[in-house]
Structure formats: structure tokens, C-alpha cells
């Protein structure tokens, strides 16, 4: 356990909570977390996760920009100027593309880690990295389908981080698992409110 790991965990909790309530400040909070986790994962030799955090730096900036655009869109305004509207994938068939992308990226990352590095848990670590990239993209675009992916990610991450002795991070991801369930339910409730508001305005 390190002070850096604990601080990253606290920023992670704040980031997920702000995401659940659809607050744009989740993104700068998450930016601090991923910068700290780059160091934590490098020290633990979890290179796919370290690479993931580097990519997440760009995602945090992109998501912050996307959510701010949504807040400024008067058609999607909420009583709070920091909240964003929820979207859903237009067609169920999109899930086939999502699963294909996760499978391909996991195979690519894990084969690279096995061949080039001394990474621990290369397949599980690569699954976390690959699925997180897809989930983060859906989150930046405000698609509710990001939540079941985070639940899958957190389930695998608990095993990986506990196995590497990153106990605060493993516990954090256990909390994340519960928060992802909460986020899914909260976004679904918000989506129903949006639908009812559109229906009432007709």
C-alpha cells in the first residue's frame, strides 16, 4: 500500500460518483486519478493498465469537452448547469461491434504483453484495458451502455489487483462495482425522466 495509491483511490471514488450524477466535473477529477495510476501501475508491472491510463489522459480531456458541449446545448439542458442528458445505442446490433472490438483488442494487447514484457496476468490485464477503452468511449458519448461494461471490468480488476498486492486499489474496484450498478440504475431513471419530459411536451 502506498500513499500515491490511496490518493488515486480517493480521486477515483469522487470521479465515479460525479459520473453517476452526470456532472461534468467527473472528467477533471478523473484526470488527476489516471495521472497518479500511471505511476502506480508502472511500479506493479501492470503495463497494459499503465498504457490504458496514458490513453485515458486524452479520454478525460475529450470527455470533458464532449460533456461541456452537451451542457451548452439548450435542447438537452437540465436544472443544474453541470448535468448532461443520457443517450442509448440506436440499435442492439451495435453490441456485436462492441464485443468484436473488445475481443480483438484483448487478443492484440495480451499477445504483445506475453511476447514483449514480463507482465503479470497479461490476458486479464488486457481485457481490462480493451474493455475500458470501449466503455470510456461510450461514456464520453453519454451512452448508458457504458455501465454494464464497467461492471465486467471491475469484476476482473478486483482479481488482478488483489493478486498483485494492490489491496487499496482492489477494494476500490469492489466499491466501483457497486457504484457501477448504482450508476446504471441512476442513468436509467434519468433516461425515463427524459422520455417522460419529451412526451409531456408534445
Structural class determined from secondary elements: mainly alpha
Strands, count:
0
Overall radius of gyration:
17 Å
Mean pLDDT: 85
What is the total domain count?
1
**What fraction of the residues are assigned to beta strands by DSSP?**
under 5%
The main pleated sheet reads as: none
Secondary structure tally, helices = 7
Percentage of residues assigned to helices: over 70%
C-alpha geometry: globular
- What distance separates the N and C termini? 56 Å
Q: Spell the H/E element sequence.
A: HHHHHHH
Low-confidence stretches: 74-80
Task: Please characterize this protein's 3D structure.
The chain starts with a helix and ends with a helix. By secondary structure, the chain is mostly helical. Helix 4 (94-116) packs antiparallel against helix 5. It has 7 helices and no strands. It is globular and about 55 Å long. The model is unreliable at 74-80 (pLDDT under 50).
Amino acid at each position: 500500500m502506498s500513499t500515491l495509491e490511496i490518493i488515486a483511490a480517493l480521486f477515483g471514488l469522487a470521479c465515479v460518483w460525479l459520473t453517476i450524477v452526470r456532472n461534468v466535473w467527473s472528467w477533471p477529477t478523473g484526470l488527476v486519478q489516471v495521472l497518479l495510476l500511471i505511476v502506480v501501475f508502472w511500479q506493479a508491472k501492470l503495463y497494459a493498465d499503465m498504457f490504458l491510463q496514458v490513453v485515458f489522459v486524452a479520454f478525460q480531456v475529450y470527455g470533458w469537452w464532449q460533456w461541456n458541449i452537451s451542457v451548452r446545448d439548450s435542447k438537452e439542458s437540465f436544472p443544474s448547469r453541470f448535468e448532461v442528458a443520457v443517450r442509448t445505442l440506436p440499435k442492439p446490433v451495435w453490441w456485436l461491434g462492441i464485443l468484436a472490438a473488445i475481443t480483438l483488442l484483448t487478443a492484440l494487447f495480451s499477445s504483445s504483453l506475453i511476447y514483449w514484457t514480463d507482465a503479470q496476468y497479461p490476458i486479464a490485464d488486457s481485457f481490462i484495458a480493451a474493455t475500458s477503452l470501449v466503455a470510456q468511449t461510450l461514456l464520453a458519448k453519454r451512452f448508458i451502455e457504458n455501465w454494464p461494461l464497467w461492471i465486467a471490468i471491475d469484476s476482473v480488476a478486483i482479481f488482478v489487483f488483489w493478486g498483485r498486492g494492490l489491496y487499496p486499489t482492489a477494494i476500490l474496484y469492489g466499491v466501483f462495482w457497486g457504484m457501477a450498478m448504482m450508476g446504471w440504475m441512476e442513468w436509467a431513471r434519468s433516461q425515463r425522466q427524459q422520455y417522460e419530459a419529451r412526451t409531456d411536451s408534445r
